[in-house]
Amino acid sequence: MPLYLLLGFSAGLPFYMFNAVLLLRLSRNGIDIVVIGFFAWVALLPTFKFLWAPIVDRLSVPGFAAFWGRRRGWIMLSQLGIFASLVAMAFTADDTNLPLVALFAIVLAFWTTTLEVAADGWRIELAPSQAEQGPIVAANLWGYRSAMVAAGSGAALLAARAAWTWAYLAIAALAFLPFPVLAAMRADPGASAGRLRSLAVGVVATAAILVTTAALTALVGWVVLSAFASAGITSESNITPYVLVACLLPFLALAFALPKIRRMGPDAPWRTSPAIGPYVDIFWRYGFATLLVLGFVSLYRVGDVLALTLSHPMWDERGYSLDQIGIADGAVALPASMLGVAIGGWIAAKWRLGWALALGAVVAALGNWVYVWLWQSEPEGWILYASVAADQFGNGMAGAVFVVYLSMLVNPRFPSAQYAFLSGFAFLLARLLAGASGDMQQSFGYDGFFLLAGGASLSAVLLLPLLARVIPRGHSAGPERPV
What we know:
Elements (H helix, E strand, L loop, with lengths): L1 H16 L2 H9 L4 H7 L13 H6 L5 H27 L7 H29 L3 H32 L2 H13 L1 H6 L11 H36 L9 H17 L1 H5 L6 H4 L4 H10 L2 H12 L1 H17 L3 H29 L2 H24 L4 H29 L5 H12 L1 H8 L1 H22 L5 H4 L16
Helix pairs in contact: 1-6, 1-7, 1-8, 2-3, 2-16, 3-22, 5-6, 5-8, 5-10, 6-10, 6-20, 7-8, 7-17, 7-19, 11-21, 15-20, 16-18, 16-21, 16-22, 17-18, 17-19, 18-19, 18-22, 19-20
């Protein structure tokens, strides 16, 4: 439990720094709200973590894995990547070179996501049942949300007194703290080298990997931006529909292949392939009900993602100070979120998952809608604090239940890859819409935007009666009866 509290903390710190804190920073530096919305697309990267999750399952990090094993090796590599990316973002904190800011934000998102992939695969291996998942998920989310609050509140308070550069450097130092803890842990049972040698080789290999990753990211970004420019697409173009279609094409292809997938035997090449076998297995086990499952998971967290995208710019525009925002993100959000996670983890372990999911969606929607009241009220501290408490409580409860549900869908033969696929798809629609949040806000205002956010999350409840009939065939980590 302390281990997963620590791993959650490691992943939560950087997430806020390329998401909510970055959007607040851009707002304070005078960047247009539409461009700020585009930066929300950085959070799309975790949606596609299934593309490299099989690598985390099968390959080992040179050096680190020789002493600490494959899972911890990837976690240590990711933490070094997170530290380097945060330092780079610190020295571009004036936001005068937005392409460079975007590059470092994307690299930070990549290493944050890789850390989550390795930790999630390990968690599912360690706790394969629903009863075991509830407490360990709660511990992981306590660490994750504590770190998000520390990042959001700490960065805002530091920026109010110094500058955004110092805020990012402080969070980088804090994000690095778990690394020596992991380095001091005992060896993996299959260790083939000593601690110091493994550490030295691992650091050298990490430096090469980080430079290569940043260079490839820059190259891909240049190619994509050049292609957009050649097609006449500018910052004023609405590319959301095109991005949505491009992202959905692989999933639509699998959906059309469902009849063939269902007839496949255990030795079929698609099912045994290291690259696509884990994902084909999901469609094989759930059949056409896979489409229902994917539809449900893509709707369940839409409201929370949209609310997170524009909540901080909205507080800034409404006239709240960085000190007030820092208190809201810290002293208020942390206990409210922890209480929500605790209750969500408890009901996920004790209740039928269908009822737990329904309650989580209702409470999360109420938390999104409370921002309508905030926007229409005079800017007073207690209104901000009450709104954030309600939002974070609902977010924490729904998040804990949802993680348990996704974990129960996973085949324990492919824990990292399948959880990466499902959790990534769960946020695909939400993060695509988040990129257009600036346009939406300009169309119908902040109050209309947050009404839409809460309604989107609540709509997932309509699918629960159908979802309760879904039972996978073959070996699954899920319950033998409907949720």
